[in-house]
Amino acid sequence: MLSSPKPDSLQYRVDNDSQSPTLPFPGITSKLLPFQQAFMDASTKRGVVYQTAVKYVNPQWMDMGKDLVAMFTGTETPQVFLANIDKRRAEEAKAAADPNWK
User: Fold this and answer.
1) FRET partner for 40 with CA separation of 20 to 30 A, picked from 6, 34, 76, 99?
2) What is the pLDDT of residue 5?
3) What is the pTM of this model?
4) Which pLDDT tens digit goes with each residue over 46-83?
5) Which of 101, 6, 3, 18 is closest to 56 using CA atoms?
6) Separation of alpha carbons 30 and 67, rounded Å
7) Per-residue burial over 36-57, b = 16 or more CB atoms within 10 Å of its CB, e = otherwise
8) Alpha-carbon span 35 to 96, nearest angstrom
């Protein structure tokens, strides 16, 4: 069983990793630049992670990353990228017997 991250470990990462200027945990002091903080403050909805907020995206998240690389390197078109997402989402919905998916 995984334990929750400890606040001091999370703060250490924010303080020492330039790629993690903030983390979405209570009690963490972020190191966002003023314009980044202004953007975050202007956001009306917080706490929603795209891949878990949109049905059937999370199970294919790694495949989407591979498709993005293929698209940006020119071996896949944007249309194929989107078609792949749609196809995998349909497969996931079918496997879940989702009555709202057609």
Assistant:
1) 6
2) 72
3) 0.52
4) 666 777 777 888 888 899 999 999 999 999 999 999 99
5) 101
6) 32
7) eeeeeeeeeeeeeeeeeeeebb
8) 42
Residue 11 lies in a domain: no
The per-residue pLDDT for range 5-34, each reduced to its tens digit, is 788 888 999 999 888 888 888 888 989 889
Q: How many domains does the chain have?
A: 1
3-state helix, strand, coil in the chain (%, to 5): 55, 0, 45
User: Which one-letter amino acid corresponds to residue 42?
Assistant: A
The whole domain housing 62 covers 51-95
